[in-house]
Write a structure and sequence with these properties.
Helix content is about 75%, strand content about 0%. It is built from six helices and no strands. It has about 110 residues and is mainly alpha-helical. The protein has two domains: about 60 residues, no CATH class; about 45 residues. The model has no long low-confidence stretch (mean pLDDT about 85).
Length: about 110
């Protein structure tokens, strides 16, 4: 969302409506699900605590190094290919898709 909103502001010179639409849709579906608005903060806090242990729970075991190296190689190739295509098409504004993809892969 941040990458798209940044692209809207700097490259397209428009107000980033996508960020407001995203926040509004989250609030709408939160209320539509029967949740109270004052419970969003505790929900986010507890979900952050739960996801803190995710990396440890999903460790690869014996082949951890091989899996990590394989992922890093694939991610690097994907970001490099995306960077090449984005640079050819958009020049300096092509860094925004690279940053967004890098954040997703991170």
């Amino acid at each position: 969302m941040v990458a798209i909103a940044t692209d809207n502001v700097f490259r397209q010179r428009r107000f980033p409506w996508i960020a407001l639409l995203y926040a509004g849709s989250v609030l709408f579906f939160w209320v539509a699900a029967g949740q109270r608005l004052d419970s969003i903060g505790p929900y986010l806090c507890n979900s952050w605590r739960i996801t803190n242990g995710y990396a440890e729970a999903m460790q690869a075991g014996e082949k951890e190094i091989q899996v990590a190296v394989g992922f890093l190689l694939a991610a690097t190739l994907l970001v490099a290919l995306t960077g090449y295509v984005a640079w050819k098409r958009h020049r300096y504004f092509g860094t925004l898709p690279i940053i967004g993809l890098g954040a997703i892969l991170f």
